[in-house]
Amino acid sequence: MYDQQQHQSGSDCSFQESVNLTYLVTWILSTTLTVFTRIRFGSEALGINSVGACLILLLTASFSNDAAMGWMWLLWCGLQLSHRWRTFLEWRRGIRRHSRYGGEPGMAMLFIKDEQAAKWLEPFLCAGIGLLLAPVSVVLTQFILVASGALLIRTSMEAMALRAELRNLRDAEIENRNRAAWFRRDRGDADY
Q: Which long-range contacts (C-beta less than 8 Å, at least 24 apart) are formed by 90-97?
């Protein structure tokens, strides 16, 4: 009965699909800021998320008719090209990073040298800068605050995924140790 009602209502979205959609939206929104705050991106890090971020910035600038948002879009496009060019030059020099590496939080690392801690500081720095820009443009401030929230959610989702991955690796290590012991016992190793 419940399944039939669920199919009739049209809400066939699983929890995992909801999480994936949330991550995609926060990834795109946070890219509107990380192009300004991060350095040393992977070769594929600025892909579909950048297309989405460019469209969001352009649409926000167009529909709000706010000059500051227009300037942000132009600066963002320039920095995007600059990051891509630097990544290409580093690749030619033989410097390799993970292709999807989202960049080193260069702005936050001016205050904290640990990359993971700097990634947690980054959304708050962006929000602070957004608030400082309130006299210039309310639309720009609101946009930066929303994107900062998205960056914070994205950072926490990535941290949760990393913790789960590390837990799975630890579990696999324990399971493999136990299997190796069973194998040695089954084989009749005297050293066991």
A: 90/40, 91/43, 97/40, 97/41, 97/42, 97/43
